[in-house]
Amino acid sequence: MLGNKVSLKLDRLKTNMMSRKAIASLLVAGATIGLSVPAVRSQNPTTIRVDGSSTVFPITEAVAEDFQKQNGGRTRVTVGISGTGGGFKKFCRGETEISNASRPIKAEEMEACKSAGVQYIEMPVAYDALTVVVNPRNNWVNSMTVAELKKIWEPAAQGKIANWSQVRQGFPNSPMKLYGPGADSGTFEYFTEAVVGDAKSSRTDFTASEDDNVLVQGVSRDRGALGYFGYAYYEANKNRLKAVAIDNGNGKAVLPSREAVENGTYQPLSRPLFIYVNAKAASRDDVKQFINYYISNAPKLVSEVGYVALPARAYTLASSHFQQNKVGTVFGGKEAVGLRIEELLQREASL
Amino acid sequence: MQQDLQQVKKIIIRNKLWQAIFAVVGLLSVLVGIITLITLVLDLFIDGLPRLSWQFLTSFPSRKPEEAGILAAWVGTVLVMIVTAIAAIPVGIASGIYLEEYAGKNWLTGLIEINVTNLAGVPSIIYGLLALGLFVYQLNLGESVLTAGLTLALLVLPIVIVTTREALRAVPNSIREAAYAMGASKWQAIWDHVLPYSIGSILTGVIIGLSRAVGETAPLITIGALTFIAFLPDPPIKAEFPYISFSWLQAPFTVMPIQMFNWVSRPEPDFQFNAAAAGVVLICMTLGMNALAIYLRYRIRKQIKW
């Protein structure tokens, strides 16, 4: 009887010991994780980190996808979406090797990069055509002038311009519903700069969404709707939308198309898209291979994901900038509004 | 007399009418929730199921909708959840036990309690910002699985603490008193009696907290979750010594909701089906975790003999 009790007690002690051992081993495991983490970090294989604009994302994604397949997994490429501004923040802190940008680098971003000692190579990779769309059942609008667009979108129009008859004489008395991208997007920034004349200055009483498909749906369901977004979304939804030809004040209205962007007649809503490469990282072999792959495959991949490829000369020029490690921007921190491909080339050549 | 009876009957009829009205209103309220849920889930399944295949689960993202898959996303989600569980469960349960069993009733405990309850209601983006400053910049953990897991652990910690306390409170005091009467120390009473009895409810709380974390996007985007990533983190088991590797903790990652959102906002309509299919997988993950919670609770409750 007594022996029984004692052994029970012993058992109890044993289990206690065991649970103590378990806790101790957990602690050891935790410590190992903590200690091994920094060691592991330095052993990591090199990865090319890309971040930035969601507009440029599909291009870089396509390049990264094919590059990694062709490369057999020796080099890793990651692509994030932080927006052009967020991307430059990380880029100037040296957290990424390449930054996707749907506009040239801004003055304050240049300053941030400079103070952090980050130099960069600017490379235009494609053109995008912002497309103004209306509902297919809208039979009164075929073209609009930039002035008319300004009348609709400027801040002064807030709460006042709400009917098509106010835009142009002869337009029917039909309520107008506006759709546009959210204030954080580069598309919004470029459109306001090009149409209103001042970046980010726009009326605010319109349906805004960061998701362009929401805008596509909105415009395709509402006869009185007008909206704008990137050309890729129009091209993928041509049967549900009607593009508006844009008249840049010279009396010639031009519909958005690849040709019109290439020959520079679709103005001022054509905009260049860029990647910025960290100059220090550019000396790395994997980054060199990736950029070379990017430039030589851009023409094919850019049109595949719905943008307009630059002429071959532009890519040669960008490539030679990269080879010669020409750092800096040709835009001096300003938005590149209404810039034709030719002018872009000239500017890039002057670097 | 007769009149009084009449009046009483009237009152009874009126009360019964109210009862019936409330039953109908209650049923309708329940149906609003359930029907919306069923419609959403059905819609998702109709769009997504045809796209669901082995290839979809084992492919990396791609610009071509038919080649794209969610391999990186679901692996990322699972790894992040593992870190979250490892970090949140011990800390959360320990805090719950301390607050419920050990802490005295003073102003400090009161303050902690108020804070914990409030933390449960803090928007998740705030946790993201906190994690960006603390884990990414201060502790220099990088934009990694580890950071993401710890961030989500912070997010579920209040839920774990609160449910642990509820569960401990549900154990009758007589159990503790009986243990003390047998000469058990406080820790013995908790470890051998109170915890085993409440572990079912605690687990339920933990898993519900984790299923909330599975769907979180905002805090992970803040700390730098990626959108395109076409490789997996290093496996945790290696062929050479020391056989275990923790480098996956440092790996860049993406998670299911971020992949879904990226596909939803693509111009090509086919990506919408991919997004729906990813949604189906995510729902199955959440439902699976909830089912596990229910099963565990059932199993453990059955063993309780009081």
Automatic annotation (TrEMBL), chain B:
Domain of life: Bacteria
Coiled-coil features, chain-numbered ranges: none
Domain ABC transmembrane type-1 per the UniProt entry, residue ranges: 74-293
One Pfam family here: BPD_transp_1
Keyword Transmembrane helix: yes
Record membrane topology: Multi-pass membrane protein
Protein name per its UniProtKB record: Phosphate transport system permease protein PstA
Transmembrane segments: 21-46, 71-99, 119-139, 145-168, 189-211, 217-234, 241-261, 273-296
PROSITE patterns, per database record: ABC_TM1
Compartments where located: Cell membrane
Keywords: Cell membrane, Membrane, Transmembrane, Transmembrane helix, Transport
Main location group: membrane
Family: Belongs to the binding-protein-dependent transport system permease family. CysTW subfamily.
